[in-house]
Amino acid sequence: MSAESPHTANTPVTDANPAVDGSELIRFDKVTKRFAGNTVLDNLCFSVDSGKHVTLIGPSGSGKTTILRLLMTLVKPDEGTIKVGGDYLTHEERGGKLVPAGEKHIREVRKNIGMVFQQFNLFPNMKVLQNIMEAPVQVLGLSKDEAEARARELLDMVGLADRCDEYPSRLSGGQQQRVAIARALAMRPQVLLLDEVTSALDPELVAGVLDVLRDVARTTDITMLCVTHEMNFARDISDQVLMFDGGKVVESGSPEKIFGDPDHDRTREFLSAVL
Ligand SMILES: Nc1ncnc2c1ncn2[C@@H]1O[C@H](COP(=O)(O)OP(=O)(O)OP(=O)(O)O)[C@@H](O)[C@H]1O
C-alpha cells in the first residue's frame, strides 16, 4: 500500500470504484482540507465498516482530529465527499445532482454520530442525569421517562449510578468524562468518535475512563473511531489502526501488524518515539 493510494480501514476502496459495500458505514472519498492555505488532509480516501473499532495514530498535526471534526460537520472539506451510513454528509442529491448539504440534511445524518472530546463539555448548570437526558428529549423527541430510563442505564454502565443528582463541578475529571461518554451513547449513535478523551485527565484517572471504553467496545455493536496517544488502549480495542502522516494514511492494518511489524519507516519512527 503506497502513501499515494487510497486506503481503507476494513474494506478496499479505490478511486475507480466508489461502490458501497453492504456493511460500510463511513467513507471518505478524495477528501482535501486546507487551513489558511496549508493542506492538512490530502485527497484522503478510507472507509470503516459497521461495528469496527478503528484507531487513528500519527504525529501531532497530521490531521487526525480534523477527520473527526469533519464527521461532526464542525468543519467542511474543501474537496471530496464523506458518507455516513450510505448518505452523503457533505452533500445531498437533488434532481440527480450532488449539491452541498443543507442544515436539515446534515442534522439528520449527524444523529448517527456521537463524539467525546478532550474537554468534557458538560452543561455546568444541569445535574448529571439532566446532562444525559437533554439531547434524547430535545433532538430525538423521547419522553422524559424514556430518556431518564436510558440515562440511568448508561450511568450504571459507566459506574456512576449514584452520582445522578450531582452537578458536574462536584465530579472528578475522570467522572465527568464518563458522564460525557454516557451522554454521547444516550443518542444511540451508530458511530462514536473519541478525540484524545484522556489527555486532559490526571494520570490516576485515565485507567477508569479507558476501562469504560473497553466495556463499550466489548458489549455494544457501536462503530468507534478513536484518536489517542494511549497505544496500549489502541492495541486492546482496535480492529484496525490507521497511521497518518502528511495528510494521508501511510499505512493501515491490524494492531498486531502496525504495532508489531509495521511496513513503513514513518510508522516505525513514530512508534519508537511514543512507545
Ligand atoms: N480551525 C483551524 N484553523 C487553522 N488551522 C487548523 C485548524 N484546525 C486544525 N488546524 C491545523 O491543522 C493541522 C492538523 O490539525 P489536527 O488537530 O487535525 O492534527 P492532529 O493530528 O489531531 O494533531 P494532535 O495529535 O496534535 O491533536 C495542524 O497544523 C493544525 O494547526
UniProtKB/TrEMBL annotation:
Its main location: membrane. One of its GO terms (molecular function) is ATP binding. Keywords: Amino-acid transport, ATP-binding, Cell membrane, Membrane, Nucleotide-binding, Transport. Pfam families: ABC_tran. InterPro entries: AAA+_ATPase (IPR003593), ABC_ATPase_HisP-typ (IPR030679), ABC_transporter-like_ATP-bd (IPR003439), ABC_transporter-like_CS (IPR017871), Ectoine_EhuA (IPR014343), MetN_ABC_transporter-like (IPR050086), P-loop_NTPase (IPR027417). Coiled coil: none annotated. It is found in: Cell membrane. It is a peripheral membrane protein. The keyword Transport applies. Residues 26-271 form the ABC transporter domain. Belongs to the ABC transporter superfamily. This is Ectoine/hydroxyectoine ABC transporter ATP-binding protein EhuA. It comes from Streptomyces polyasparticus.
